[in-house]
Design brief:
- The protein is mainly beta.
- Helix content is 1%, strand content 49%.
- It has one domain.
- The strands form five sheets. A nine-stranded antiparallel sheet has the order 25-24-23-21-30-29-28-27-26.
- The longest helix is centred in the last third of the chain and has 4 residues.
- The radius of gyration is 21 Å and the shape is globular.
Length: 368
């Protein structure tokens, strides 16, 4: 998601693939950043009325181009190395299958020991929207760069930047184990999942369309062995969807689940509803720090952290892991500073704790 709620979604990097390409004379080691297509949903639009209804729309762009400009390699003591990444523009294409390769970029790592990485993405990027069902098209000749009338020759890429209401979310990934690179070491090849569902906000007034986007394709650093992705939303579609009259930017409820061979490895989540349980309404969870696990009843559970450094907590979350696009289930939150330990001491895969929800929101599996 690229809307403003994405700013709260910090990321966890659970595994890296290692390849060897060393340059001892320079103090650097070559590695790769590989981009993979995120979850895919249905192509049918939510309303299909021929012209967009006045108000807020959440848009899943047909295509988007973003450019990664640098990676901050952060040590556990607070130090950071800024690593420039050259010629790293990647194109997201919604029509491609989930987890298909979208290309890769070379990363020249500085020798050092790193606890986390942060991505910096160019604040100028391109999007293409081609929705004849609802009458929404990007058009470089339109004053607002969007039109209800299909341009001659079809929809085209348009360029957005900070001046047009765009912004870039914080994209930080923490390694489970520190990444140690010396002049003779192997270098990490990191996968980034490029997510493009409901990342663009559009405000409609009559035939006037106002584009306002954070980032149309979000590069989530992820474990390299990701085998499946699930994206849940309170909206019942991954396609372009009306989301109320506005004019305030929409903040949908959503959960992004990444799955490796051992089960769920990361969830990022957000909902205004969850603010009744804990401030902010959303963040992230992983197996090691948050006991994220899928139990034998297909219930996904995790604990909610309040302070990363202190290891304090403020809640529990649970939801059913759904298997079919269009299925729905309740995502529940429970405020507690003392979430129980898992039965096996490892994760809630050994059994999700029982609790009476403080609040719930219904979400649909819209993309996988």
């Amino acid at each position: 998601m690229g809307d403003r709620h994405l700013r709260t979604w910090f990321l966890w990097l659970g595994a890296v693939t290692l390849v060897c390409s060393c340059n001892p004379s320079s103090g650097k080691v070559s590695g790769a950043l590989k981009f993979l297509k995120g979850a895919s949903g249905g192509s049918a639009s939510a309303l299909g009325v021929g012209a967009p209804t006045d108000g807020n729309w959440l848009i899943s762009p047909d295509k988007a181009r973003i450019t990664l400009v640098s990676i901050a390699a952060n040590s556990s003591d607070g130090g950071s190395n800024q690593i420039s990444v050259e010629n790293c523009t990647v194109e997201y294409d919604a029509s491609l299958p989930t987890l298909v390769s979208l290309g890769e970029c070379t990363v020249e790592w500085d020798v050092g020991t790193y606890a986390s990485v942060s991505f910096s993405v160019d604040s100028t990027f391109e999007i293409l929207i081609d929705d004849p069902v609802n009458g929404i098209f990007t058009d470089p000749d339109a004053a607002s760069l969007a039109s209800t009338v299909e341009p001659v020759g079809g929809a085209q890429f348009v360029t957005l930047g900070v001046g047009q209401g765009a912004g870039v979310p914080d994209l930080t990934a923490t390694f489970v184990e520190p990444l140690v690179i010396d002049e003779n070491s192997l270098a990490p090849s990191i996968d980034a999942i490029l997510h493009g569902v409901h990342t663009v906000w559009l405000f409609v007034t009559g035939t006037s369309l106002e584009l306002n986007t954070q980032l149309p394709a979000i590069p989530f650093p992820a474990p390299s062995a990701i085998g499946a992705i699930k994206y849940y939303s309170n909206l019942d579609t991954a396609a372009n969807a009306y989301d109320g009259p506005g004019p305030a930017p929409p903040i949908p409820s959503a959960v992004l689940e990444l799955i490796d061979v051992n089960g769920p490895v990361y969830v990022g989540y957000n909902s205004p509803t969850f603010q009744t349980c804990f401030p902010g309404g959303g963040t992230f969870a992983n197996r090691e720090s948050h006991y994220l696990g899928l139990d034998s009843s297909s219930k996904l559970c995790w604990r909610v952290e309040s302070n990363v450094e202190l290891g304090t907590y403020m809640g529990l979350m649970s939801m059913p892991e759904l298997s079919q696009i269009g299925q729905s289930g309740a995502v529940s939150c429970f405020a507690t500073a003392d979430p129980p330990e898992p039965a096996d001491g490892v994760s809630y895969a050994s059994g999700c704790p029982s609790f009476t929800p403080d609040d719930q929101v219904t979400m649909f599996l819209v993309a996988d």
